[in-house]
Specification:
277 residues; alpha+beta; 4-stranded antiparallel beta sheet
């Protein structure tokens, strides 16, 4: 890259001699190749940490690449609230309540990079989540049970809601009543329900990610059974139900108070306010 930093305009013999000297040095220097900056759209995942948060870059969520910031501290100084009350509190905070889908997308991104150059940092983030689940952890996802277990052909009678009570609320029709079971590729009868809740239909992958994230040997999906009153709303929470089992609880009452960890999301290569992606 033979670059001449001084122009041709001459002010004096001294300036002219200095220009010749400097340009001669640059002419003798080898060309410098500046590495091309990788776009975040390349799909590469990495983690940054700050005093108050972990930042996950390149999380694949609903076919979009997101930067997802997770608070290091539990929200509202580790106080417990209902989902309704969390939604009232959160507009004054940078952080919001994560959906079940976003939880899983973040854990999946960590899982897929766990053996890479950031293994130690990723393990630290994993341990944070694993400790959380010693208590019921709030999500902004819920299930509305309409069917009472009576299904009409291919019609989807119940509804999974993500970002309950917010402008980002997303509804997914799915039959849910009575669909409890261990998350395993052999239990294909809960595949549709897991897909609606976590965004992945690969039961083996879901099991492997959650077993790694929690350190437990198995994962169980809890749903309400037949006989549930029509229109019953239940919040989705994550917790351990035994020493060996992690539970996806789609059966928690709407008035249940529990802890929450905060999340803030931006779209890659853009600034997007609180979950508007």
């Amino acid at each position: 890259m033979n670059q001449h930093i001084l122009g041709d305009k001459k002010k004096s013999n001294f300036d002219d001699n200095l220009a010749d000297y400097v340009n001669e040095i640059f002419d003798k220097m080898p060309d410098v190749i500046v590495p091309e900056k990788k776009s975040s759209n390349s799909g590469s995942f990495y983690v940054d940490q700050f005093d108050d948060r972990y930042v996950l870059h390149g999380v694949n969520y609903d076919n979009k690449l997101l930067t997802v910031e997770w608070s290091k501290e539990l929200l509202d100084e580790s106080r417990s609230h209902t989902l309704y009350d969390w939604n009232i509190l959160m507009p004054s905070s940078k952080f919001q309540i994560p959906s079940a889908e976003l939880y899983f997308a973040s854990l999946l991104a960590l899982y897929e990079s766990k053996d890479g150059c950031q293994a130690e940092l990723i393990e630290r983030v994993r341990q944070m989540f694993a400790k959380d689940f010693e208590n019921d952890m709030m999500t902004s996802s819920s299930v509305t049970y309409y069917s009472n277990g009576k299904y009409d052909g291919n019609q989807k009678n119940d509804v999974v809601n993500h970002y309950y009570g917010s402008q980002n609320n997303r509804k997914i029709p799915v039959n849910f009543t009575g669909y409890s079971g261990y998350v395993d590729e052999e239990n294909s009868h809960i595949k549709e329900q897991i897909t609606a809740l976590l965004g992945s239909e690969d039961l083996e992958l879901v099991r492997n990610v959650l077993n790694w994230a929690t350190g437990k040997g198995q994962t169980f999906l809890w749903a309400l059974n037949n006989g549930t009153p029509r229109g019953e709303e239940r919040v989705v929470m994550f917790s351990y139900s035994s020493e060996s089992t992690f539970s996806i609880r789609a059966d928690c009452t709407i008035g249940h108070k529990t802890l929450a960890r905060g999340v803030f999301v931006v779209r890659e290569n853009s600034i997007v306010n609180k979950l508007k992606f």
